[in-house]
Amino acid sequence: MIGKFAFWPDQASSVALEVDLLYIFIIVVTVATSLAVYGAIAIFTIKYKRRSEDEIPEQIEGNLPLEIAWSIIPLGIVLVMFAWGIKLFYDLSRAPDEAMNFNVVGKQWMWKVQHPTGKREINELHVPLGQPIKLTITSEDVLHSFFIPAFRTKMDAVPGRYTISWFEPTKPGEYHIFCAEYCGTEHSHMIGRVVVMDPAHYEQWLKTGSANAVVSNETPEVAGARLFQEQRCNTCHMTNGLMAPMLAGVFGSQVTLQGGEIITADENYLRESIVNPQAKIVNGYQPNMPTFQGQVSEDALLQLLAYIKSLSKSEAGAPGAAAAASSVVGTSEAQAATTDNQPAPPEHAAPSTGDPPAVVPESQPRPTEQPAPAAGDQH
Ligand code: CUA
C-alpha cells in the first residue's frame, strides 16, 4: 500500500519495508507531537486570555505525577526510535556471511562495478534476485555516495578507504542508482541503474558482453594473485615470515602492532598497509616496506584484497598460500596494467620497474638506488 504513492520509490529489497515503517513512525510521532503542542498553545491563548489589567493568574507548582508523566512518556517514545533505528542500522551495516562481494569504485563521473566472476560494468549493476549482495565501495578521487533508493541503501564512497553496503533484492526490475554526494560539475549525471534478474538469467548474463559490460574470466582473486607476483609482494610476504608477515589467514585476524596495540586486520587495515605501510608496523618487524601509493589503482587494490582474503579462507597456512601464489605465475602478462578488461580509464598502475620493492630501509617512496649487488639488473 505504501508503495502506491508516487513519492515512495519501489520497495525492492529485504530492508525497504522496515526502513519505510520506521520513517513513517518517526514522521507520525513528530507531526502528532507538533500538533499537540501548537494546538495546546493556540487553545490556551484563547481560554486563559488575560481578562483585566490587574488579573493575577493562579500559581500552580509541584504537580509531581504530571511532571513525571511528561518526562517518561516522551522518553519512552524516543527510546523506541533509538532501539528500532539502531537495530536497523546494524542490519544495514553487517552483510550476511553468504553475501556475494561486488566491488564498486566511484570516480568523476561514473560508477565502476566488478562482479565476483571478474565481469566489469559501468554505471550498471546486474544482480541476481533473492541473493544478498555486499558492495565494497571506494573512490578514486573525491567523495561520492552510492544510492539505490529502491533498496533504501546509501553509502559514501570515500577516497582512501573502503565502505560496505549490502542489500538483498526482492523484486525483479530496474531501479535507479544515484550519486548522492555533490562531486563536481557532472554530479547530476553520475547515475545508473540496477537490474535485478532471476538467478538463471543472471548466470546467462554473466557470459555475455555488452557496450557497458565486459566479460572477464579472471576473478578478482586470480587477478590479485597475479598482481601479488607482478608487484613482487611475494618476495617478502611468501618466503618464511622473517622479512615480512605471512599473509595466509591474516584477514579478520587480530594483529599485534609495535607498541602492543591489537587491531583487527580488516579491509581498511590491509589497504593502509599497502599504500601507507609505515602507518602500522606489525610487532617484531622492521618498517622495511616501501609504499605502493600511486603504484596500484583502486581496482588493483581491491583485487589484491580479494586475493589476501582468499588466503584466509583456505586456512592452508604458508605452504598452501605460496602454492596459490605460484600457480598463477604462468598467466602473468608481464605487465602491471590491472584493468585489462576495462573500457574506461587509462590512468592505472605504472608498469613495474623491476625494482625489488621490499628491501629498502626507511620510508623511501620508491627505490631508485639499488643495493649494490642488484645494480646489474637495472633496466
Ligand atoms: Cu559522484 Cu556526485
Fold topology:
Layout: H1 16-47, H2 64-93, E1 100-107, E2 110-114, E3 120-122, E4 124-128, E5 133-139, E6 144-148, E7 153-157, E8 163-167, E9 173-179, E10 192-197, H3 199-206, E11 213-214, H4 220-230, H5 233-237, E12 254-256, E13 262-264, H6 267-275, H7 298-314, H8 317-326
Parallel strand pairs: 1-5, 4-10
Antiparallel strand pairs: 1-2, 2-3, 3-11, 5-8, 6-7, 6-9, 9-10, 12-13
Helix pairs in contact: 1-2, 4-7
The structure holds dinuclear copper ion (CUA).
Textual characterization of the structure:
By secondary structure, the protein is of the alpha+beta class. It has two domains: 1-35 and 67-216, Cupredoxins -  blue copper proteins (Immunoglobulin-like, Sandwich), CATH 2.60.40.420; 220-378, Cytochrome c-like domain (Cytochrome Bc1 Complex, Chain D, domain 2, Orthogonal Bundle). It has eight helices and 13 strands. A six-stranded mixed β-sheet has the order 8-5-1-2-3-11, covered by helices on one side. Strands 4-10-9-6-7 form a five-stranded mixed β-sheet. Strands 12-13 form a two-stranded antiparallel ribbon. A hairpin with a 4-residue loop joins strand 6 (144-148) and strand 7 (153-157). Helix 1 runs antiparallel to helix 2. The relative contact order is 0.11. The model is unreliable at 315-379 (pLDDT under 50). The structure holds dinuclear copper ion (CUA). Dinuclear copper ion is lined by residues 106, 109, 144, 179, 181-183, 187, 190. Residues 106, 109, 144, 179, 181-183, 187, 190 line the site of dinuclear copper ion (CUA).
